[in-house]
């Protein structure tokens, strides 16, 4: 019997039809980003302090302390190496362990930057950047997360002392979930109902000190702790998601983040001339970063599954000779290659969203708020789409790796457990899709009033055509025409949105219609988000892309991405009359051909992610393909194998055996 050997991957790499080095640059975004990313990944991989292969075997306390040690080491190395902000953030990323630094840099600092006045930024940002204080972001409460307007915590202005009183009036008002809050943060941006002069003025952010900077004990009036162990071993349990109760805690007036709303010494509330949704700005920022991160998590899972599928052999041999690589099975390809294509699709849409966010930020600074609703819809919708697909994809990759995928040493169970809350945090994915739907229904009703749609809804301006068009695809090759593909996606999305808007108008109130039709609205929102991803991917592959064969590979992936969605949502494409059953069959035929084209390049396409073995953290996904020896070595390292005879033998195995022997003698 010939067993799989490490040569499998070398063979695979020799088959590549494109320049992998050039693809690495495309994946990274630029040569500069590639260089920084590569350097930081290697620094982490070569530092034993950042070891993570024992994480799933540690108890919660040990695990958490281990994370604290790593975070301290990150800060130390960043200082020693004089890393720039960009480099330090990559270093943290490759340490690959949820910890308080994520919230400090990812939410506390952005909240102050986005919501604080210049004066407040000058005061707090230097303290935060030097890490003289550690901050987190406390919005969610035990009783409310999605419904931000339902938050109960109050911030009541006391004009006598020029202070706010932060108070948790009920158990359900306890802040609950914020990362870094439970055990580490010294400060927090708390979202609370502003009350002044006996009147409520909406939800705003307030900086509150939680713990003493001398001995880390909670300050008076603060009850604080960790909310408990979460899903999975290791995984997100490295993070101290916390609760806090404020018992009339007093803070100076200038601790309210006052960029968009000021409270004067007398307690007058002065709203700036900006939309009230600006107070939700940190969420828009973070959702945009989550979209970028989705492609990392997805590509990591896909890298493991593709490499392992090239190593793994099952069946296909008559005489106990060499068996078939499971990557050669069409069913394996049809499950795996769309995920590979999605990883690239999300990478490009993530880059585009970064651009959109920078653009809207620039406009907001110039008091142009016109693109804010679109930025909200795009970040909310793409956050929802990419995280849902990625979470499902990680689980699919686990199944694609058969039994070994279920071992923690495959890296996939922990990756799933760490990733899946992305479908919930920063906005539950369904709640966010309903926000997109609200935007779409508004856009459709504005069309009727003769308003021209802009940005990602520009396609809706072609209303008459999109409502009537029939796809012209008459051969499998026609499905490789960008215009044919885009027309089908745009027509499906538009027809679903129009149907929703039309059906809503049949109800007594728009609110009643919206609530009753929310299932259809979610589908319309997904269809619109898919238009964005598909069109950005098509745009990308129409650009000049350097490197032998790189553009061709991306074109293949682009059409796999689009056509697998047509297959997945064929019900919608057919029921809206955008394509016929025959055209759906032609699209599938083309998809099968594309799988064949990507097959020889699959391993090289995941090599282009440039992941170190440390970052992958997987016996199955190793660069050298030495899967079986690694699985065996890792099994031997399991704490259960520390002794040959297990602890508990004397107490619990021997008596059972003796009892059985006694019984059998009777
Ligand atoms: C890098 C860091 C690592 C990450 C680690 C993870 C850490 C996790 C952190 C967290 O989870 S923090 C907590 C995040 N919480 C949420 O995301 C809550 C989700 N809920 C909401 O965002 C909102 O409450 C809501 C669902 C959007 C509803 O808002 P509201 O009650 O105000 O209702 P509506 O009536 O639906 O909307 C009014 C109006 O406002 C527009 N809008 C809503 N949100 C935004 C926004 N963010 N930006 C701009 N505009 C917004 C909405 O479209 C409506 O507009 P109109 O239709 O009236 O024009
Ligand atoms: C790992 C993790 C880290 C987190 N970190 C932070 C943090 O640092 N800071 C912070 O403030 N928060 C944090 N959160 C909290 C997070 O933001 C909330 O859990 C999230 O916003 C969802 O809110 P919820 O828990 O209230 O869910 P709910 O809104 O209670 O959702 C429950 C169910 O109801 C459905 N639902 C709710 N509303 C509607 C609706 N209008 N229409 C249809 N269906 C609806 C949802 O789809 C879901 O299925 C974190 C959460 C997790 C899991």
UniProtKB/TrEMBL annotation:
Its main location: other. Residues 20-134 form the Acyl-coenzyme A oxidase N-terminal domain. SUPFAM superfamilies: Acyl-CoA dehydrogenase C-terminal domain-like, Acyl-CoA dehydrogenase NM domain-like. InterPro entries: ACOX_C_alpha1, Acyl-CoA_ox_N, Acyl-CoA_Oxase/DH_mid-dom_sf, Acyl-CoA_oxidase, Acyl-CoA_oxidase_C, AcylCo_DH-like_C, AcylCoA_DH/ox_N_sf, AcylCoA_DH/oxidase_NM_dom_sf. GO terms for molecular function: acyl-CoA oxidase activity; FAD binding; fatty acid binding. Coiled coil: none annotated. Keywords: FAD, Fatty acid metabolism, Flavoprotein, Lipid metabolism, Oxidoreductase, Peroxisome. The active site is at 426 (proton acceptor). GO terms for biological process: fatty acid beta-oxidation using acyl-CoA oxidase; lipid homeostasis; long-chain fatty acid metabolic process. Its cofactor is FAD. The keyword NAD does not apply. The keyword Lipoprotein does not apply. Residues 280-441 form the Acyl-CoA oxidase C-alpha1 domain. FAD binds at residues 140, 179. It is found in: Peroxisome. Residues 482-658 form the Acyl-CoA oxidase C-terminal domain. PANTHER family: ELECTRON TRANSPORT OXIDOREDUCTASE, PEROXISOMAL ACYL-COENZYME A OXIDASE 1. Belongs to the acyl-CoA oxidase family. This is Acyl-coenzyme A oxidase.
